[in-house]
Amino acid sequence: MPASPIHFGTSGWRAIIADEFTFANVRLAVTAIAGHVRKHAKKPVLIVAHDTRFLSEEFAQAAAEVLLENKIKVLVCDAAAPTPAVAFEVRRWNTDGAINFTASHNPAAYHGLKFSGPNGGPALPEVTRDIEARAAKLAARDFSIAPGARDHRALQAERISLLEGYLARISDLVRFEVIAKVKLKIVFDALHGCGAGYLDRALAEHGIPCHAIRTNRDVLFDGTGPDVSEENLAPLRKAVLSEKARVGLATDGDADRFGIVDADGAWVSPNHILALLYDYLVESRNWKLGAGRSVATSHLIDAAAKSHGQKVYQTPVGFKYLGELIEQGKIALGGEESAGLSVHGHVPEKDGILACLLVAEMIAARGGATIAEQVRSLFKKAGAEYWPLRTNLHLSEEVQARTVARLKKNYKEFLGRRVKHTDRTDGLKLEYEDGSWVLLRLSGTEPLLRVYTEANSQKAAARLAGETRDWIREKSMVNKRNP
Description:
alpha/beta, Alpha-D-Glucose-1,6-Bisphosphate, Chain A, domain 3, TATA-Binding Protein, six-stranded antiparallel sheet, 21 strands, 38% helix, 21% strand
């Protein structure tokens, strides 16, 4: 009896193309989704979207066929579409959700499927568990739909465009006149993803010049992947310096994550951007609301919220949890250290395009002050410095299993330091007396163990990360004293 290959992580189901991400498994997953949707809606309607990856259009077509066979009305996007635009369209059309073929920031070898609910946000765990269970039952029956077994002429889905509606919404959220007034010089890097033709078009429609790079489709993503990491944004850094731009903006493969390069070419931590934008939005919009962050995100946002007399809501990793807080109207901004955010009154889904445009607005509104200058000002306001760091560890199955077992223990001391507070919201987070902390958790999208650290200097955060890495690999002398 075959086992089901459909397993949802923090942001959908992702797998290697032609290994587990195959047309057969896509049809299995979509059939399971169809079963779930039909259980909750009498006349269901779903949007089917895709990104710029290899075979994206073909996977979307296969999904549309399966949905139509299951008597579900389908609205197929007419071009590669950003995840936040899909989320907005779900709400605008009042559909029962969307199936979006994207692996977001993952390397080119991956593809993925995101399922969104009627609110446009990522499906919650109870929904994905039901879909996984349905897929498992289908797999147990040796489920298969043979290609070519359908009458394709009878499976014509309605096609829709997302661009105009989404850009109109962005115009409501961003004060483009502020950016235009100071003639802010901007470079945009689409990383060959879905942000191309959206972010640059939004600026152009408001008369704001923008030099855009890597806007063409490249299914290999320059051989690096469409992640907004410091390493991947080297071309943006070069363009910012050569153009003498005030800021470099970037979006990942499906444009749900943001990347920022300062005027001097320095890559800016998403953690710092989240805190800055929260502080700016509360001031500029007069939103007397709290902030939401994942357990892995910098406590600088806590300090910013405290300065405004507002509460911070902590969630597990996964934007679906922050999306709920946005839906409930509790927060001005919800953000994750992995470069995802959304804001009050917007979709409960990450929006990298909006994030980038708000950064441009913030720089313009604050007299053109660089991001580095604004970070220093926020540190001064907070009365402390916050330097976060994330380290990804590729471990053998043996070391990973041993580490997971060790994380279940209780630690009064860790790495030779007294533990002030233990947090098991998602993984193991240990906080120290001086405000520094370390978090260890398995990735929900890749075969990695992630180590998050934060301290009052970059050097101290890196030292914590190094000591934790040694502890995991059992090389640290501290670990021998504290098994």
